[in-house]
Records
---
Amino acid sequence: MQYSSVFLAALAATTALAAPWQQPSADNKLQVVLSGPGVSPAKSVLPAGNRVAQQASQTGPFSFVELRVGKNVENKDYRCQILDEAGKPIVVQRGANTDVTFADGGKGKWTFRNQASKVSKVICDPTFKKIDASATEIRVQLSNQGIELGVQRVFKEGQRQEQAVGTGPFTTIEIVVGALVQKQDIRCQVLDNAGKPIVATRGANTDVTFSDADKGEWTFAQESDVSKIICDPAFRAGSA
């Protein structure tokens, strides 16, 4: 049986119209956009699903990063990470959030915390999670094991801060600095009820200001009530 050219053309057109519509590829992918003053934006498009790492399409330096999760990606909480030239995660901030991974959330760009940086690699991983708040905090723990007494105060990174305690007696103090606190060597001080700095020792170090350094507790020269804790980025070692 033969068909006219007009009939065949009509059939082809009908078949094309009946074919299922394909979603734009970006709807099923993750887009990571790097930008900054004076540089052209660089976009990396990564598949959603398993962990995937991709060389940055341009190195920068950049100051901002934005994740755009395709509307057909099931996991809307997807997070990505960018590495600097040394292979270390770049710390980013958006609003009150500081992290080494970043999400979309419909809230736009994240800003590099420290300074503009070159980017070597973009990584997206469905197992990435928002970092715990403690990573950006400074925790001061006062203890007296003999009477099972303990008090903790939490400080935010930034300027000099003071918090009242008004109890005791204590025998030790420990400073725990979160992994994302920019000033890792920040020091704190405790005052007795007379407002005088309390002296404490850790190893060969005796001081009236105390740091973390992953070395644990400082021991008071003598047990004492504590009226106040002060954390100040201007404090320096060797004050005793």
---
Amino acid sequence: MEKLILATKSFVREYMSQFDSSHDYQHILRVLSLANQIAARERSLHPDICYDAEVVILASLLHDVGDKKYLKQDEVGGQMVERFLTLHGADAELARRVQLIVTHVSYSTEIKDPAKVQEVLSEQPELAVVQDADRLDALGAIGVGRCFIFAGAKRQEDGMVGAITHFGEKLERLEGMMKTGTGKELAAVRTQRLKTFRSWWDEEAMITKHMSSE
């Protein structure tokens, strides 16, 4: 398994290098660290729930592989993770489980079909861990930075105001979508940081409000 994890890290490091720094290898490492932290805490709190450590690690490392936001025109993201894992010696069941988690980790997937995400969670509890970890990295000080970087890379037409609008449209909703107790606790702290930043922004942006009609 160690050989597979090393191969995965190498692959993901190269794969993520083509994207902007809101979705780079450092993001992957933060998600991995958070996922391990959440899994360890949840195991101690709920020993009746089995979190497979290998699945958590691999799904954390691969969770952005095939992300539709970054797919090239000729790429199909659907089974990229499963193909990679099988090619590097993972058994078919492990590859299937990790692909299933990666496919259902995103916010947009859950908004589109929340019942399906709940169905996968009942089969793969590791999804809760990886999903919470990924969403935590969209919050707090890191989340603020990532939001502005992504806006500059992918939504330049909306400017900085578009990034701030994204706080209310998505980021501040994530706390209520956390699946684990640990994730909820960490999200509460990071969401407050996000809201504090937005209040500072609103205060400073007021300086030009009277000019909007000129």
